[in-house]
Design goal:
Blueprint: H1 2-10, H2 15-22, H3 25-61, H4 73-85, H5 93-102
Helix pairs in contact: 2-3, 3-4
Length: 103
């Protein structure tokens, strides 16, 4: 609740703005760098989680996967590359299919 109180007092809504208002421009840059490091860590954690769970879920509920994308080290590398280089705004085939049916 401290962040909410600070945001209300300083009338800002970003961590960087709060740092600039309370301290100075240098602290604002430090907060920006720390936010970037944190977000990169979250992104890497997501990639690791997905590369380990997607093959497991497919093996458990759907079918046996080919060797190049199963639960081996090479398969996990495939899933890690797939989820780390796919564009963030790309639409999956299922989403585009359901939108075309709704029109």
């Amino acid at each position: 609740m401290l962040i909410v109180a600070v945001a209300a007092k300083t009338k800002t809504d970003r961590y960087e703005d709060m740092a600039r208002t309370l301290y100075n421009k240098r602290v604002e840059k430090v907060v920006s760098v720390l936010n970037i490091i944190c977000l990169v860590g979250f992104g890497m954690s997501y990639i690791v989680f997905v590369k380990q769970t997607v093959p497991f879920i497919i093996l458990k509920f759907v079918a046996k996967l080919p060797a190049w994308c199963d639960d081996t080290q090479y398969g996990q590398a495939f899933w890690a590359v797939l989820f780390s280089v796919s564009p963030p705004n790309s639409r999956c085939w299922w989403c585009s299919r359901s939108r075309s049916r709704a029109r």
